Amino acid sequence: MFELGKHRRITVAVAVLLLLPLVFIAWYVAQILTGASAFKGITEVCATLPDGTEKRWTEEADVAFYTSLLEHASVVDQPVRDVEGETPVTLSLDGTAYRLYPSLSPSGCMAQFADDRFRLLAPEDATALLVRPEMEYVYASYLLPTLTVCSGERQYPVSPDSYTWNYRKADGAYYQDGLTQTSDETVTCNLFADFSNDLSFSTKPSNYGLTVYGISDGGTRYELDNITSFAGLQFSQDTLLEVEVNASWSQASNAERYGDAKYSFRVLYDVPAQVEAVGASENGEKSVVAGGYVLLKALYTNQNEDLTMTTDLPVEPAVFHYDSTARSSYAALPIPADTEPGAYTITVTSGETHRTVDVRVTDAPEPQTLTYTISDADYTAYLAPAELETLAGTLRQLRLASDGTPHLSADLAFGSPVSGEVDLAFGSTVILGNSAVEGTGMKTLEGTLYKSPAGADVHAVQSGVCVFSGALGAFGNAVVIDHGCGIFSYYYHLEASNVTVGTEVTRSATVGTVGKSGYTGTGNACLHFALSVGDTYVSP
Q1: Neighbours of 184 (CB within 10 A)
Q2: How far apart are CA 144 and CA 259, in angstroms?
Q3: Higher model confidence: residue 232 or residue 456?
Q4: Confidence of residue 237 (pLDDT cuts 50, 70, 90)
Q5: What DSSP line would sit under 117-186, residue for residue?
Q6: For the chain: N or C, fewer Cβ within 10 A?
Q7: Alpha-carbon gap, residue 203 to 304, rounded angstroms
Q8: CA torsion through residues 283, 285, 288, 290, sign
Q9: Are 277 and 315 in contact (CB under 8 A)?
Q10: Main-chain dihedrals φ then ψ at residue 539, nearest 5 degrees
Q11: How distant, in Å, are the alpha carbons of 292, 426, 491 from that of 432?
Q12: What integer pLDDT is reported at residue 148 of this predicted model?
């Protein structure tokens, strides 16, 4: 009995060993059948490309291609290349998701199934995949090289006007680039004279031609000779250019890509702004009394140039206004009368360029004091609070209506309004004596009083546009001229005016005659002249 049991156990063991290969074969066949069955009956394939573009196929040939692609992929223990950070193509076959990692090399194309294991696509399937239209993005590095205009760290990409471009796909055949976009819009690039300037292609062309045209103020185009690169551009002032580029990449032996392209764009060659204070000394420092003003001129600017100002002076920074005739920009900055004497700086920034102007503020002269006795009638007619507020409101509205356009003469010098002595200087104290009238008392003169005979000519101190001519309360017959940049000049107590609103005047032009209209304090003929920057009256 013992021998018989032992014999049976041996028989069972041998039978098990003999059956193992059969079991393995059955398992393997089942795996194949199960895998194949996973792709049976698929009717729709959807794909989301890395840029978010969505595709959908229901045609039998397209569905069969993708199901066969996945069905014949081989499991690999490790990815054959690093795909970390790579955005896959997301496939959905009747709702089941797969991730596809195409590569320029067919041997690097993989798929990732729901079990997170990677499969390597069969070489012939990978090649067929890479020539499909939806895979054109894989060849981004094979498309038309990009052109970039560089100025310092600034870069301006330029799209071609037209091009012909061919590149080779995985099957060895050449295909035309259909992704690179052309542009009908003219790009304007800023080149700065103090930066390194160049044209840069992502792939250097075999042949390259550059044609540069200058654009005159009237819009006429003229060709500039002997310009072969942007590195050699040099102009003494801001200059508008039109540029044409022709580039070609030859079809050398076994070339992966070849073709040609044409580009056109505009260049604004920008000479760095040079900033100076009008009337500054040889060392560039501007001396100004407290209560005066500083007029800044920024040379080599253009209409669209963004100039910003910062200063340690106790005043809000001023805005620059462009003068197309002078190709310069101007800004006027009032210096408050209570500014402490000392050294200050004004910094003007254009892009990445900074220019500094030194300003030295000095004490204003000791103010004069003058007393006038005012009658009740004159007070009521001219100097009552309501009258003064109306007067101030009228002048304020004139200033608000200005757009700041400069009207200044080329030398920027301000002349004298009249021939005559100064009777009362800017900032003087005027005491209006009338104890019976409440509200009279100490006033500060926001201008200068000149002694001059009646009928004497009154001259514009600078070029500008007349914005007021007529009666103006206590100031009598008056003329107000807008010089731009927030600068206004005022001519009061005139006998008559020679200009009307809208009249353009030049420096020294006669705008009226000396008179004694309005309230002069003495009843004698005089000229009350004033100058303001923004809403601040300043010493002329």
Answers
A1: 6
A2: 8
A3: 456
A4: confident
A5: -EEEPPHHHHHHHHTSGGGGGGGGGGSPPPEEEEETTEEEEE--SEEEEEEE-TTS-EEE--SSPP--SP
A6: N
A7: 33
A8: negative
A9: no
A10: -70, 125
A11: 26, 17, 22
A12: 97
Strands of 197-327 (E only): list them.
197-201, 207-215, 221-224, 239-249, 257-270, 274-277, 286-289, 293-299, 307-311, 321-323
Q: pLDDT tens, 370-416? A: 887 888 888 888 888 888 899 999 999 999 999 999 999 989 999 99
Cα–Cα distance, 532 to 474 (Å, whole number):
18
Instruction: Quote the CA–CA distance of 449 and 527 in Å, as a whole number.
Output: 6
| Class of residue 398 by CB neighbours under 10 A (exposed 0-12, middle 13-18, buried 19+) | middle
State how far the alpha carbon of 319 is from the alpha carbons of 93, 216, 381, in Å.
64, 28, 38
Inter-residue contact 490 to 449 (CB < 8 Å): no
Q: Which region holds residue 232: left if phi is over 0, alpha if psi is between -120 and 50, else beta?
A: alpha
Q: Where are the extended beta strands (E) located within 250-341?
A: 257-270, 274-277, 286-289, 293-299, 307-311, 321-323, 328-334
CA distance linking residue 458 with residue 446, whole number of Å? 19
Contact 289, 340 (CB under 8 A): no
Distance CA 164, CA 176 (A): 8
For CA atoms 130, 131, 137, 138, the dihedral sign is positive
Helix runs in 39-122, H state only: 60-71
Q: Which two tokens stand for residue 237?
A: 């002032």
Backbone phi, psi, residue 133, to 5°: -60, -35
pLDDT in tens, 342-361: 999 999 998 778 999 999 99
Position 445 scores a pLDDT of 86
What CA–CA distance (Å, rounded) separates 445 from 144?
72
The C-alpha atoms of residue 502 and residue 406 are separated, in whole angstroms, by 15
Which single residue is written with the structure tokens 């292609």?
A: 201
CA dihedral sign, ordered 503, 507, 513, 514: positive
CA dihedral over 406, 411, 416, 422, signed as positive or negative: positive
Q: Which residues contact 353 (CB under 8 A, 6 or more apart)?
A: 192, 194, 272, 273
Segment 35-40 long-range contacts (CB within 8 Å, at least 24 positions apart): 35/71, 36/71, 38/71, 38/96, 39/67, 39/68, 39/70, 39/71, 39/93
What is the DSSP pairing of strand 154-158 with strand 147-151? antiparallel
Cβ proximity of 274 and 258 under 8 Å: no
Q: Which residue has the tokens 């794909």?
A: 47
CA-CA distances (angstroms) from residue 165 to 222, 253, 259, 261?
Answer: 31, 16, 4, 8
Q: Take residue 472 and report the two structure tokens written for it.
A: 């103006």
Q: Please give the pLDDT value at position 17.
A: 54
For residue 508, how many other CB atoms are within 10 A of its CB?
A: 16
- In 3D, which of 273, 335, 326, 334 has the Cα closest to residue 463? 326
Instruction: Report whether 112 contacts 99 (CB < 8 A).
Output: yes
